[in-house]
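Schema walk-through. Below, the input block comes first and the output block second. Nothing else is stored per chain. Lengths vary across the set, and this one has 440 residues.
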Amino acid sequence: MRLPAGRTRALPCRGKDAHLRGTVNAACLFLASALLLSACSAPSGNVRVNGAGAEGDATLRVGLILDNTGSGTFLNAAQIAAARLAIQEVNAAGGHKGRNVELLPSTLSQDTAAQARALVDAKADVVIGPTDSSRAPAAVDVLARAKIAVISPANTAAGLSSYNSAGFYFRTAASDVAQGGVLAALAGSSGAKRIAILREGGSYGKDVGGATKSALAGAGAETVADVEFTPGKATAAVDRVKAATPDAVVLVARQGAQGALAELNNAGLSGSKILLSDGAVRQYGAELGSGALNGARGVMPGVFPSADFQNRLVAIDPGLKDMTFAAETYDAVNLAAIAAAAAQDDAGSSIAAWLTTISGGSVNQAVAGTSPQSPRTACATYKECLSVLSSGGTPDYEGQSGPINFDDHGDITSASYMVFTYAGDNKASLTGTRSVGKNG
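--- output ---
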């Protein structure tokens, strides 16, 4: 199955725009500093554990933080369309307590703290966003203090799992490290036993490379080389990889991916021996030597949108061509609305307290009044989940992006990945899917 030329969840551009799925360079330093400061930035306690009293005004208000600018601006359209679609369907099913759910006006900016303050003033109950992991702390610090739930459809930086949000931060995108298990499984499926890991310097390379190495060990494979390189300076690292005589090479990279692949090709390590992390997957074409990636495979988080979901999104925005993060945004809005319905309250603290339970994660007895073994009923839409609640049951929302099952950190516990295979023209097409746990 090839990626259609029209409306798709396309392979995103990389290189300069690598930050769209995580943090690189200065962004990594910002996130690391923010993690150290988070203990004094957020309110005390954890609403996921302690529950919350009813504080809402019976009108559920959803805000968006849109932080994609420059060449990444196209990502905003899919998130807006998905949020509008979800709210349209929620309102068609009766809204919240008989009132329409409101989508607050949004602005495009990289000043997420200012966007968050504006949404506090607008009385948002839940905020969807931001996209860039490096901007999450600034948004969370403002919104958590205001007791507003935050659900990012795109944050993947592993460090955010331990960020102190007092239980108000969640994400419907998998942490970067989850792909380690998929990369290890792909290596095993090709019969490779001796694996080399070539990873770009920085937190992304360290985190994903480490997760891949652990998954390989668990699968009985040997990591014969684990080598770091600097973008644009991969020659020496590739020489060390070649000297280890691996059966396969896992490249964990973003900015330096193309240069590293060129060096690997020059060293005779090419084609089906190559496995690419999500940061290295793109349509290279003539940017690499002919056949350099023939048979190589790479992974991307998420699921390919169904035809029905694509059609519903296009009905909202006829000009929509790329659907990256649409499923995750749609699910985030639905989860918030279902949590508010379960709590019978639209306040952000009530939503955050119920999100884990209604997503299929560990039941929060402080809010659910049930035992951890209480059965839950799977439901795929707000309307279906309302029916479960009205019959006295506990819903388990499984949406367009797959099972959610939030854990104690607000992370999804089951991650879906698309597998892409490259042809002789160094262009990739979708050839399969894989699911793994949050840590790979």
